[in-house]
Amino acid sequence: MLAFGSLAFASPWILAGLAALPVLWWLLRVTPPAPRRLRFPAIRLLLGLVPREETPARTPLWLILLRMAIAALVIAALAHPLLNPSARLAGSGPLVLVVDDGWAAGHAWEARQNAMLELIDQAAREDRRVVLVGTAPPPGEEAPRPLSILRAAEARGLAQSMMPKPWPVNRAQALERLQALGEQAGSVVWLSDGLDDGASMEFAEALQRVGPLRFVADEPGKLAHLVTPADFGTDLAVAVERPFAADAAVQQIRVTGEDGRLLAREAAEFAPGQKRVELRLPMPSELRNRAARIEVEGETSAGAVLLLDERWRRRPVGVVAASAAGSGQPLLSESYYIERALAPFSEVRHGSIEELLKREVAMIVVSDAASADRSDRDKLVEWMEKGGVVLRFAGPLLAENGDELLPVTLRRGGRTLGGSLSWEKPANLAPFEQQSPFFGITVPKDVTVARQVLAEPSLDLASKTWARLTDGTPIVTGEKRGNGWLVLVHTTAYPEWSNLSISGLFVEMLRRLTQLSEGVGAAGDEALAPLETLDGFGRLQRPPASARAIPPGGALDAVASPRNPPGYYGTIDSRRALNLASAVKTVNAIENLPLGVERGTYVKGAEVDLRPWLLVLALALLLADLVIGYALRGLLAPRRAAAAIVALALLWPTASAWAQSDERFLLEATTELRLAYIRTGNPEADETSRAGLVGLTNTLHRRTAVEAADPLEVDPERDELIFFPLIYWAITAEQPPLSPRAVDRVNRYLATGGTILFDTRDQGERGFASGSGTAMLRRLLRGVRMPALQPLPPDHVLTKSFYLMQDFPGRWAGGQLWVEPTQERVNDGVSTVIIGANDWAGAWAIDRNGRPMYAVVPGGEPQREQAFRFGVNVVMYALTGNYKSDQVHVPAILERLGQ
User: Fold this and answer.
1) C-alpha closest to that of 533 among 573, 574, 562, 555
2) N or C: which end of the chain has fewer CB atoms below 10 A?
3) Dihedrals φ, ψ of 593, to 5°?
4) What ranges in 47-108 are assigned the alpha helix state H?
5) 214-224 pLDDT tens trace
6) Which SS3 state, helix, strand or coil, does residue 150 take?
7) Burial (Cβ within 10 Å: 0-12, 13-18, ≥19) of residue 879
């Protein structure tokens, strides 16, 4: 690199071409312009008139200077000039890039990736090799691959494919890989997440021994946040922690449901010097029970997300009011202990059985003092068999007067002190067995039972026993009744027979029983397979193949890791949330580094690449030279010349942008598979189309083998369309009719096998047949060779290309889908035109956090799911053609082959 103050040239040897400028001067100077052609009658030759103008012997000086300037600009551009170039990398060996790609990298990954690419480009200019080291362990149980020294082009491709992981980094392991390489680096750059893992100083010192170290991280106030559960009594609560106790700050915390709808939004306010804020999120039980996710607004990382499961839900529990008759205790004595135990996680409601059944409750508790007649018991059984839980407590009344609403048959009188079956001292509870809903709860040694109601021995008593005393007698029994449960505690709900009701064990047992009302089994009674996992940006997705199930009994102690990424585990009906907070308890910023370490941030430097500007300037001057050449030859009238100059002046400010955008468009369109949408000129419609195709692309990644990159916006007036298998075209009133050039591009695209999904988006008005969007579509496509269309047949390939479906809703439901009649010999049987009116992009559209942008009516989230399925079918139809149609004919083909 050759530098002149703030200007440098990455390829200075090309400047030697400037030495050829004198030769170019001489060639241009001795070469006259082409002669002018004059039309005149041949008779004028006889007059001997001398022409007023003569062909000059040499090219004008100003034209020579213009052409030499063009040549000089091209030579200078090829030398790759840089304004305010970055400092040269230290040393002369390879560049070692150490990248923290763990959970904390997600919220600023784009800046980190840009920094990687800039450093790799700088290494390429200095003709250096690159070693790229990620500090996060690989997924699953994979062993990290040995490092290798890469060419800059290879390193650039690897850097572009890197993604943040949703688990913590392991810098010690990364250091071992780097030391195993045994290469002395010329320069080491640590692109850090800024978080201290307890050994950051030692890690930096080890990197210094490899080569001169530069440390790059976000500013302290911009580091990743961590969301963890907090205990705030009966309310839902979280703790938000920042790594650095900086100035006062405010972070918005969002609570959303499974459908992405916002349920609550509260501000977490950090005082100056405060690192941790605990935030209450008070909500009605109905909303709290729908909550599925708590997140820091605007931050995209797995640490900024807290997934919720049954443990966070507050289930309403009904307690049947006690009857004064036959109760030897005060009226509310049993209800008092039950209510105190349920209060941390449930909303307690009192009333008679008839009153409670009219309200939404998850469990109904019937104490010994509560009475129920035959009619009430029948209604209770009917409610229980639909999925409710009925919890009964024993006592003196039940011991003497049993009934049929019991999971087991009881002995009359029970087991009492002073009798033949009395104990010398109260008995303890035995540890819970694996098939029990209470499995995993630790039994305190100080919980004892002095009196109980005994169950009659039977063949199924063991399977119905959920808790035992140390002598083996049942203390809690349960039986499945329909879709619900009938549970009996064989002692009282107050301390007369046992101290269970005043222990913490009582609270945990009632919590587990309340969860049964929603079909949630005990955590740890079986292996929990991964359902959905978070990626490095905090988005739920289909679990990768490397994710493993949580082993039986391990749910309570499971920790987010490469083997078990954070997410949901279990089954659809009984899922367990595993959050990053299980592996990361606190966050602290890296403050101290060894002496000699250069510090930097991800703020883009002042380096400016002048090559595109010089090439555009050379192109503009070349166009000017062309116009001048035509003018000197008399091929351009003065008015036309003036118009050309004015047009050139007007186009000059946008010439650079056009050149760069065209090059970028061709690169993006040809290197990866992408969906595309037509630019309509309506910003809102274009943004909806973009967001919709982003949502559809994400769905394709999760559900199919299609690996598509982000969608592109195309303009048929200037962009080529043939690179895209499917184009989404939203119809708006702002779109003018296509020009002949655009019509030709659309016709060529359809003729070469492309598919366009036209969406008039007016089903919310009147539907395709007569909606205003249809008239706009006809006006817009005047001149396009549209094929004949027909309503979609019930057996069309589009109904089964991936999902089996007959309705194709979008943001709106209903409406008719129109396709080209099937001709399997043409375009592999794929319709080049699909027309509908349901605003599919509006249903697919997601924001930057992956949440739906628009409501769908009238079907809600199930309708949105159908819209996504339609989108998947359309893409698979465009890519695979009549593949599914061929399968239909397999029996006939086999029959003919047999003949």
Assistant:
1) 562
2) C
3) -130, 160
4) 61-78
5) 999 988 778 88
6) strand
7) middle
